[in-house]
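Example 3.
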Amino acid sequence: MLTAGGTFALAIAAGVHEVYLARLPGADLLNSLGNYLRYSIVWPLAVLVLAFEFGSGPRIVGMDESVDAHVATSHRHWLATMVPPAAVVVALFGIILALKMVAVFAEGARSPLGWHVVASVTLNILAPCVMALLLGFVAATRLKRVAGYAVVAAFAFLAGPYSEIVPIVAQAGFLQGKGGLNLYPLRDLFGVLAPDATWYVDPLYGFPMEQARWLLAGFWITLLMALLLPRLTSPRVRWVRFASPGLLCAAGLLLVAFLLPSSELRRDYRLFGGSSQVTEQAYYRLQSEAPAQLQEPARFATSSYEMSLSADRELRATTTVRIANDSSGGEYRFTLYHGYRVLRVHDSQGRPLDYSREGDYVTVRSAEKQERLTFEYRGSGGIYMANSQCVFLPGYFPYYPVPGFVRVWDDLYSAPAMDVVDAGAVKYTVRFKAHVPLVSNLELHEGRFEGKNAAPTFIGGLVTEREIAGHRVAYYPASGSNPEGLSDLITRVSELEREFDIDERVLPDAVPILQAPEFHMLGGATRLPGALLVSGFDESLAGEVLVAAMPRRPDRSNLKEAFVRFFSDSTGAAEASLASLNSSETARPAEPVPSSREIARLENARRSARTEWELVQKYVYPARGVVSRLLLAKVLADGQDEALRDTYRYLSSDSQLSEIEFLTRPSHGGKQ
Amino acid sequence: MIQVRDLKKAYGRVRALKGVSFSLQPGVTGLLGPNGAGKTTLLRCMLGIIRPTSGDVRLPDGSRGQHREVGYLPQRFGLLRELTVHEALAYFAALKEMPPDDVEAAIDEALREVNLLDRKSTQVGALSGGMIRRVGVAATLLGCPTVLVFDEPTAGLDPEERVRFKRLVASLSPARAVLISTHIVEDIVALASRVMVLDGGEVRASGTLEEVANLARGKCYFAPPGRVNEYSADYFIDGYAEVDGQSFAKVLSPRPYEGFTPRTPSVEDGYLCVTRGMV
């Protein structure tokens, strides 16, 4: 009673807290509702204890044998003992689901979040509790008390988050380029709870509900049912004789399906082909055998792509690329992310072609010129993913064979490179089979995504599309993302374009604005040919859009960051700082400016840096505050409009001045 | 009433039953055997709690397991402490699939037979071990079974409860077939009319008490206790007795030694002769 009562009280308290968090102004609904996902071990553990206690109670007092002697009816006894913990499971599921749904409906976010929450509570709460219920009874009918509680402890460890320490430690040698022991597959068998629930819930991905985990839950439930069924059914029922072997066969099939190769876990920290930034860093930086990143233009052009993509447990793709202006000499070089295994490359006649693979680079060799090349490949992305729950394939990521060798990884930022080979728009025809609704910067016609583009982007998951001020806008309502103010922001960008005398539109009319999960983004906005990727729709977006098309230059990154901050809020931090400075330090307006000694030291550090890495370490990080203060001083001295216009021009120019030199030179307001 | 034919049970390489056959008739039959002889395995196989490796068991109505025709009191019997005696018995009545209309009368009748009718509303937690065992007997009596099977029914009871329990079993209708499994010969002598001796998974002897006792005829002697160590080791000291003010060792031996005086064999002597391989 105490355990059940405590469990209910905890479930209600957790649910009410989630509703409260969801109702806070500006709350992220998805993360509020995922708040207690990290404690999801509590419910199955409580159910396991209850099931074991109820199941073993009659045996402990010595009632079991006299019950079991009623061969024809003893199943009723065991069913009866299962009823209270089973009722607890149902009530728990009901309480948790109801409270989450209250929050969902109160926020007006119904479909698809409603179904997403139902599915999540089913997989992440109900399924582990059912497993715990069955496991508790299997243990109760077979084990003594001490052994039974050893099972409880083993369940808590194996299913809980702490057991990951074992494979993490075991793979340590891998980081140094040595061999490591991959214990993850073993641990995966017990991964019935939501993985990495300590992280924030990705607004596009939603709660973790990977297909493999459904299969795993099915495996454990059928296996435990097979063990328990003879106890729970009358021997008079003939089909029971076949049910247990049948369930065992089903469990076996589910296990095989679960073990099929793929890595579709969100933010998977295993270094053996997992999917996270950490995995990618391990691959590109720490593994000595990782091939170098290359940049080599293709000696051919591509005129069209026909792609057939399928996002299931992993991405499966057949891509046909039409070759033009071929001066390759029979050696066709492409970039394709290393996580995708090339199964076959063939020509327009279907004849297989010889190819070699080195990391992200594929070279296809052919004695004769080819008009079309078809690549068949499948696999998982480390950061950019396409699985049953989420698709995020931005145009700068080589999820299809990109002509030439391009950088996939930016070592300097330890992040994906966002280089787009803009060799002119190419025609794309894409059939994309996915379990989630898809949004793209290509147009959807009769089930195909089509259009001329240089960076075809696909986003799928908890995403919604609507039109705002002539732009197709994709955003995530489940996380509270709201593009209502986008219209004003677009107007503001247009004004800035005029104020700053920008010739080329930074936000062309009708360009799709696609919200990308913040986790994937380096900055607040990324300009792709034919799309603008943004991380959100707050007021800093205007500034982000202005700098989005500028190349990544570490020596100007501080100024770019300080520049964007001025747009973060109309009455925001920068102006507040200004007001504060103006009110308290009007007598000493030079006070916010760093000393010339400090500036000289930073400039020396910048000049002495031999590599970009050194530049970042010696200059970029230490100069962040100084640059911010210098820009503030410039704003104070020149006026905000003039200072920002001047700064924008500098940032978008090829000026040889360093950012500090620019900020400390006498103002003249003219062009660079 | 119960027919057991060539019953075998193996646990891996251990053969717990090696082909046991017997038929159970009305009256009390004792199943004697040392610990590990296979008594409990035999009863569990008979009642269908465990599946025998081979062999056949026929219960009165041709079915398996405990039901209205068969009542079974296991060696380890207990009840949930929270239940009242009435609730516990009603639970077993449901397991026996008794018609609901008959349950109340059957509970009263069973409690009357075990002399616990006044404890009908008492919680199990408030009963002594002996009383709980009697409630167990009442549970076996529900539905007026024609066969009762008791596994070590007096184990763990204090002397007073043992006497009471024996009286209870003796009072059960002689029309029933009662099988009592035990290693306490004294209980069998007090209750049973027939005995089966099970040893090493086999029935080594069976018959009336007298027939089993007679298995030791010609092998029972009194020996002067001070000299027992002088004899060779092919005998067994079964205890000590005082005859005409003199103390003697009760000895089982295939032949008399000097100083041995013949004595009348008991069931225990017969049982020991069987289990010692002297028959």
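Chain A is about 45% helix and 15% strand. The first strand of chain A starts at residue 301 and ends at 311.
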